[in-house]
Amino acid sequence: MSHKENHRSHRAGWLRAAVMGANDGIVSTASLIIGVAAANTTQDSILLAGIAGLVAGAMSMAAGEYVSVSSQLDIEKADLALEQRSLEEDYEEEVVELAQIYEQRGLDPILARQVAEKLMDHDALGAHARDEIGLSDSQGANPVQAAVFSATTFTIGAALPLLVAWIVPLSLLITMVAGFSLVFLASLGAIAARAGGASITIGAVRVTFWGALAMVLTAVVGRIFGVVA
Question: What is the rounded average pLDDT of the residues 49-55?
Answer without folding.
Answer: 92
